[in-house]
Amino acid sequence: EVRLLESGGGLVQPGGSLRLSCAASGFFFSSYAMSWVRQAPGKGLEWVSIISDSGDSTDYADSVKGRFTVSRDNSKNTLYLEVNGLRPEDTAIYYCVKDQYCGSHSCSPPDYWGQGTLVTVSS
Amino acid sequence: DIVLTQTPLSSPVTLGQPASISCRSSQSLVHSDGNTYLTWLQQRPGQPPRLLIYKISNRFSGVPDRFSGSGAGTDFTLQISRVEAEDVGVYYCMQATQFPRTFGQGTKVEIK
Fold it and tell me: If you ran DSSP here, which 8-state letter would residue B85 be given?
């Protein structure tokens, strides 16, 4: 059974930092890209970041570029998101998503989501 | 960025009746590998999103066959053949053809 367990959220002041973690189990973690997606209270979904299976390639939404850093430790089956320079508009539930595995002709879909961890940015 | 526009944004449905949600993309979602990476997600109240449909029309593991997806290019549809009480929630389309990944605004399905 695929499990994704996020942690590290909390209340932080504007300008502050947090490190979010996502512990993965039930699949070959090192074979899949992984993403972070966030959802502000009562709002829709916003893709934040992706990291390749090996960790050597990353991409970010423009809204977080230069402030957030995604990384992974395949030996620990864990995904991370360093969030710096936090703003009130970063307040959201942050979801960890098991993303694509790409073969020679096709990619699997982003398919499993964690329960999320809430980040609240407020003074 | 690719913009996905869903209609309607709200869909009150009678139990046992069908529901249909449209997702229109600002550009073709056909990837260079020939696949179209359009997915549909369901988010029940208080829950994380759950994958329903991938690559336009493929039902994910455990998804009831009353859910179906169709479309091509820039126009896609999610259909629920007979709405059940457990189908209440918000439905999102999402494209994984191009970065950044983008989502539709969401369509709220509720029971009349």
Answer: G
pLDDT in tens, B41-72: 999 999 999 999 999 999 999 999 999 999 99
Helix %, strand %, coil % for chain A, to 5? 5, 50, 45
Average pLDDT over residues A95-119: 93
- Which residues are bridge partners to A47 per DSSP? A37
With an 8 Å Cβ cutoff, is B39 touching chain A?
yes
A103: Cα separation from own chain's centroid: 23
Token readout for A105 is 């002709």
Q: Round to the nearest angstrom and report the end-to-end CA distance of chain B.
A: 36
Nearest-Cα distance to chain A for B31, in Å, is: 10
**Pairs of residues, one from chain A and one from chain B, whose beta carbons lie less than 8 Å apart:** 61
HSE (side-chain half, CA atoms, 13 Å) at B4? 33
Q: Please give the residue of chain B at the shortest CA–CA distance from A63.
A: B100
Nearest-CB residue to A100 (from B49, B96, B103): B96
